[in-house]
Amino acid sequence: MSLPVAVQVYSVRDDAASNPAGTMKAIKEMGYAGVEFAGLYGLSAKEMKDIVESNGLVPVSAHVGLNEMLDTPEKTFGDYKEIGCKWIAVPHIGPELRVESGNFDKTIESIRKAGTIAKQYGIQLLYHNHDFEFVKVDDEYSLDLMYRVIPSDLLMTELDTCWVKVAGEDPADYVRKYSGKAPIVHLKDFIGSKSESMYGLIGTGVKGADSVEFGFKPVGHGVQDVPAIIKAAEEAGSQWLVVEQDRPSDGNSPLECIRMSREYLRSIGY
Question: Of 90, 95, 215, 259, which is the most exposed, with the fewest CB atoms less than 10 Å away?
Fold first, then answer.
């Protein structure tokens, strides 16, 4: 049985903000089985739950800022528990929390605390990486350090395979490395390689536009060996594949880009 495929709603965030019900309907009609949230677009948990359920979508998971989890835990975890999410992922950490800041020990403790709270709500905390976690501390990537020192009942992986490859590692190998600890794998494709403008494409760092240096693409339309990544996810015991495209490409709308990703995955049996 092939792994089910969801989409990170951040990929179509403007559509979701202006028409959440219509966007969820479109996602279902494309053939996605579930969604991963990046906010609720002004809706209550009950309203979003009703929209998702009425469209036959599984509320898989959510990306929630670490500060939000720690500052308003009752509302944050309570809302996503009400919607039905099994996982919540830390989507990103700012420069002030990374190894280079000298504050990484505090970052680890904050993530451990968030994982402990999540567990109290019956939710498993995940961490969604970029490439900046592939900075070494005593010959160990900070990403691996985090997963080693925080027990897996408090933190598991949500490996973003685009950023793993950008960092110079093989995505399939990295997924296998976390067998049993990789419930969700992000499928993200791209062209080019690491560049100064790269983070401008996701709204942080140096502003930039798609170029020959780096650009996001629909899954199956870039450099990733997608079949190999999916095979690794299956072998690692993953439960969901999640499509994400931070910015649309080639003049296509965000909805058209995620449609292209879904059509490619269907063409290879997913």
Answer: 95
